[in-house]
Amino acid sequence: MSISQPRYHLEPLTEGRDTSAFKCEENDLNEYLHTDAWQDVQKHIANVFVVIDSECATSRNVAGYFALRAHALSIEETFFGDASSSDDAEAHYPLEIEVPLVELMWLARDQSWKGESVGVFLMVSAIEIVAQVSYLVGFIGLYLNATSASAPFYEKFGLKPFPEHPHFDRHYILSTSALRALANATLD
User: Fold this and answer.
1) For residue range 12-27, what is the model confidence (pLDDT) as tens digits?
2) Residue 158: which of 169, 145, 142 has the closest Cα?
3) Residue 138: in which H helix or E strand, if any?
């Protein structure tokens, strides 16, 4: 009896990984993977993970990828719902504080794998990784900037509009507690 390997698996982007054949619907996402992703990994700016399809030739098996990085954002203290209620004159003005986040910079699926649930595999994998990190490092959640076309996809995973973002325009967040709950549900 032999144990078969799953069709898809996730691995960190490495220098030798051929990504030249990757092509999704967005040129910016293609360009990032082809030219900038490995540089970001080398400079410790981001970690990039690729989904490998074990049923395809090595030169053509990158079904998708995502990139994660640390991020910080200045938001009003009232975001946390427990702002100070002092009688100080400054209390009438919301304080801005810097909060840590994990940013999902990029997530893309190759056109050849459309309809194969690779996007779901990518998103679940990203959520599981970020949830694991949340037990080691403090941050308020997973953050991303969605296009109008991709927003419904992210909303399926519980991401909510993030109007506290100073440049709010399709920014979404999944709180750390929601991340952990979702990751625990997918691992069961």
Assistant:
1) 999 999 999 999 999 9
2) 142
3) none
